[in-house]
Amino acid sequence: MLSLRDLQLVPDTLFGRDAGVRHIAGASVRGGMHTMIGQGVSFGITLLRTIVLARLLAPADFGIMGMVTVVVHFAQMFSASGLSLATVQAKSLTHEQVSTYFWISALINIGIAVLLVLCSPLVAWVYQTPALEAVTVTLSLSFVFGGFTIQQQALLQRDMRFGALAVTIALGQLCSLIVSAVLALMGWGYWSLVVGSLAYTIVHAILLQVVCPLKPSFRFSRHGLRHALAFGGHVAGFNLLNYAARHADNALIGRYWGASALGIYAKAYALLLLPLSQLREPMNAVLFPALCSIRDDNRRYIKYYTCFVNIMFSLSLPLSLYCLIQADVLIHTLLGPQWLDAVPVFRVLAVASLVQPTLGTTGSVMLSYGYSKRYFKLGVVNGIAVVTAFILGVQHGVQGVAIAYASVTILSFLPMACYCLRATPICIGLFLRAHLGAWLPALFAGLSLLGMRMGFGIHTIYEHALISALFALVYVLLSLRRGSIQEMVCTVMQYRKTSPLPAKGESLCKEVVVESGDVVL
Fold this sequence. Notes:
Blueprint: H1 4-7, H2 24-56, H3 59-75, H4 81-89, H5 95-127, H6 131-147, H7 150-158, H8 162-185, H9 190-211, H10 225-293, H11 298-325, H12 327-334, H13 343-352, H14 356-359, H15 362-368, H16 372-393, H17 397-411, H18 413-421, H19 428-433, H20 436-455, H21 461-479, H22 483-493
Helix pairs in contact: 2-8, 2-10, 3-5, 3-6, 3-9, 4-7, 4-10, 5-6, 6-9, 8-9, 10-11, 10-13, 10-15, 10-16, 10-17, 11-13, 11-20, 13-17, 15-18, 16-17, 20-21
């Protein structure tokens, strides 16, 4: 069982690539497994927190917290997360460089906290809720504490110590739950949520310092600083544009069609996103640092990335096809018959999800080679295209917005992939070929599912569960015939084993590469 001592980074290895990262297969599998386990634990704690606090607090308490959360999430777009990616992406680092990034990140977040304090009266005025002023001021402290942990998180990601990150997050969430529950029992109302949120940030910061004992100096280095600031700024700009574009659909639907239509769209989107995020987030968390660690070896880089795309598509494609075919069953079972109007929207969004997961990986390729300016330009063009599509689609209702999103996603797939992969070892042909192996098993399984639905007159939930299991079985049996899947299964089963370092001069390209579930020969 992992302990904080086991997770602690030795100071001498903080700024280099850990030796284990040279074994990208084991590092990736361990990172992906730890991230998936940590995500599952975090989901369980969050669910428990929701259940417990829902019984102790009034809806109005959650409403006050929700109002401030909108402001806080927007402020987080500027919290120097891009600078942390610059740390992960850097080929080499010195203590002076990391110290410089540390203090810059801290100052940026302190500045955000000051701005939140100054804007707190405005927040209270906009929502016509005086209590929000004190709440906003209190939550601004989370940026102060969080600003001193950004580089620790980046160093852990750089060294692919995702187990350490998972433990710190889970323990922080558990402490937040305990603090909020105790204060709620004491009658603190919405302040129990506010203090609990702040407790998470403080505990997480302390744990990060324990597992990654960074001691920044006051000796600053200009080496690479200009590149790091530009890199971080471009990433932050992309995140801001992407955030605005991704929320434009909700704003337009709410403005033109009202709360009921927005509720249908939001529920369909959230339901589809839930299973896909459980797949994408653990895998993508490992992808960027892994690519950065092997970018000087083109052959190994190509094998790793193409197999990553192969495995991700092999996992996401059947999930998307299942959602597309079984949309009515999923909506009726999980949300109830009153939500059946969301079925057409859910199906259209499922079409977009056929290609979106793998398309998102091309940005990591671009960033691993330092093309942050191009990444920002992509955000500008993509933001304009998505918002324009939403404006056109909203004229035709909720389904029109969903069709607009699916259309722009599918039509931009090839141009966006070509743009992101330009001037990298990954050519568009390799990227597209990495998708081919999954199509035949998925289509055969999908046709089998359609045939069972139409041929047997299935009505009960048990019958639907049976045909769903048969769909999964057909896909798995067909997929197991593929060499890459066989290698992935073998690697995952043995992910705890550590391979010896290769002999001097021996190629590292022979090892299996698994990116949070990806496998490469």
